[in-house]
Amino acid sequence: LAKTTQPISMDSYEGQEVNITCSHNNIATNDYITWYQQFPSQGPRFIIQGYKTKVTNEVASLFIPADRKSSTLSLPRVSLSDTAVYYCLVGGSNTNAGKSTFGDGTTLTVKP
Amino acid sequence: NAGVMQNPRHLVRRRGQEARLRCSPMKGHSHVYWYRQLPEEGLKFMVYLQKENIIDESGMPKERFSAEFPKEGPSILRIQQVVRGDSAAYFCASSPSSATAYEQYFGPGTRLTVT
């Protein structure tokens, strides 16, 4: 299964746009890219999922280049409440859940 | 539509006792996953179940841990003869089908403390 690499941490300020990039060089043809957000002492929350090009919802945008070897989660105008850990997962179906973990994710700290 | 429910939220057990963690998936979801998260670490997959079937238990420790998802009632993660190293947050997630590629909905977790 595709291994993912994310920055360990990022800092930002309120009102800025934040882009978190995930590398997945050996992504398979039927793999989707999924991002989760986790606040302290809470379970992860599904944010967005995509296969190619661009996906946008009310929370974030996901940019996927043509080769799909990386993806970028974009959070527009972050606030203090966006401080959390963000996880990137790559997989083709939930039957692969046993072969991957959430890893360490990216700890985003939003400052006033 | 109620979310994934887990109980208890906090559980304290002495070494050697049994811990039973319960998870009720979202309505309409028939797939359940259990994860363990140690302090300051990411989530580690433990087991994936469908009703009355264990699909993938490759993340479960070989001894003392078991899981079930009966036809009726919640999914249960059971830890026998707990040790201090079992202290962690245990999260349950559910999904409506196996084709949703990691679109899982998580519960609030059960924090197990072994004294």
Q: If you had to describe this structure to a student in words, what would you say it looks like?
A:
The complex is a heterodimer of chains A (112) and B (115). With 112 residues, chain A is mainly beta. Chain A contains no helices and 9 strands. Chain A has strands at 9-13, 18-23, 32-38, 45-50, 53-56, 61-64, 70-75, 84-91, 106-111. In chain A, the strands form 2 sheets. A 5-stranded mixed sheet of chain A has the order 1-9-8-3-4, with no helix packed on it. In chain A, β3 and β4 form a beta hairpin. With 115 residues, chain B is mostly beta strands. In chain B, 0% of the residues lie in helices and 49% in strands. Chain B has no helices and 11 strands. In chain B, strands 2, 4, 5, 6, 9, 10 and 11 form a 7-stranded mixed sheet that branches. A 4-stranded antiparallel sheet of chain B has the order 1-3-8-7, with no helix packed on it. In chain B, β7 and β8 (75-79) form a beta hairpin. The mean pLDDT of chain B is 91. At the A-B interface, β4 and β8 of A face β4, β5, β9 and β10 of B.
Number of helices of chain A: 0
Give average pLDDT of chain A, whole number.
Answer: 89
* Secondary-structure element pattern of chain A, one letter each: EEEEEEEEE
Structural class of chain A: mainly beta
Radius of gyration of chain B: 13 Å
Beta-sheet strand percentage of chain A?
over 45%
Instruction: Give the mean pLDDT of chain B.
Output: 91
Q: If interface size is counted as residues with C-beta under 8 Å from the partner's C-beta, which chains form the largest one? A: A-B, 26 and 34 residues
Number of strands of chain A: 9
User: How much helical structure, as a percent, in the residues of chain A?
Assistant: under 10%
